[in-house]
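User: My instructor asked us to take a sequence, write out its structure as tokens, and then describe one feature of it. I'm not sure where to start. Here is the sequence I was given:
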Amino acid sequence: MRTGWVITLLLVGMMTLAGCEGAVVATPAPATITIGGSSAMGLVLRALSAEYTRLHPNVVFDLRGGGSTLGEEAIRARRYDIAASTLFPPDPDAGRPPLPGDERLVRTPIGLSGLAIIVHPSNSIEALSLVQLRDIYSGRVLTWQALGGDASEIVLVSREDGAGGRILFEERVMGDERVSLTAVVMPTSDDVVEFVARNPAAIAYVSRSHVVDWIPDEASDAAEAATHPAPRVKVLALEGRYPTRAAIAEQQYALTQPLYLITNGPPTGRVRQFIDFVLSPAGQAIVARYHAPIR
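Assistant: Let's start with the prediction itself. The structure tokens for your sequence are:
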């Protein structure tokens, strides 16, 4: 009789352990969030998604580029979970009428950024006005000597159609004029910086996030500035201001642009949780490494 009780207790214990083991190995189903669009937001999205995955290991991200316009087209068609865009919202008065499907889109601002005007570090030019920049990109000014530099011919660098940076540049700088057909077109912000770093006569515009360590007046003190890597490009002042976080946050820099995470309808589930994280103090601290935070 006693032996029977022992056997029963052993069986119950084994069943209990089996149940515990099942509870231990059970993990949340993995989830993938697809984000695509602006290459200017690539660095901050990589940092945000990496931290979110660290906190929530079952959530992974599929990050894609292609430009803001492509991102917005994809989110209208529900091909992405989130579109990253630096485009201003539709505004018929500003020549940006809404497109079919725009009425469903929800734009969540996460920060502000700006286009930095960059040249090679060997270039002696330190600042430009909007008029000078337009004259350069229209082809009216062909050499750096005309602006006080050397005699080399200016090499123009632009972005591909649909890039948020190109749209902003053409609206704010070029107006009714076209960028010269001699401009070299680059597909991503990384490519822009790489090209200018290798070409002493080049000039380009690029998101400040890709040159943040080399923006004059950005470092809070000399000790912080000393930790930055040697500049691969030089950031020029535009209308007397650099694209610092402070100037952008106060809307005092000429080429300021918004940063949006866009969903097709109000965000829900894991997408909503990620956007809430981006807007949290921890998320906004990450945004502040590259751009001006919204909060």
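For the description part of your assignment, you could build on this observation: The longest strand covers residues 105-119. Try explaining in your own words what that tells you about the chain.
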